[in-house]
Amino acid sequence: MDEARPAGSAQGVAFAPFIGEPSLPPGRGSLRDTTLDSQTSGDWVAWVGTYEDMALGREGQYRVRLMDNRNPWDCAYPGVVVLPDETIVTTTYGHWDEGEEPYIVSVRLKLEELDAKASSR
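Predicted structure:
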């Protein structure tokens, strides 16, 4: 997990009303990282923070690399869905294998698992 930065493009965002304050549900973003000084620059990442963090351009809680894109920028125009069991599913395309054509992948995440990993660091 990396320092949280909301800088990205092609964001897909889902709000998780089942966690946190009802007035400011946590935002869960899936995006292509455009932070130039980041280890995940150009990769598909998940961003975790509040709606207020996004609205004010703040760092948020943390960011997680979902897939390492092998092309400097061509990836991540994701859709994000929160299932009834609170699983977050995000789907996008990217260049996941060196020298290969781009293809589509889906990732399933549980926020509690990500939060536990983030808090143990």
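Summary: The chain has one domain: 8-119.
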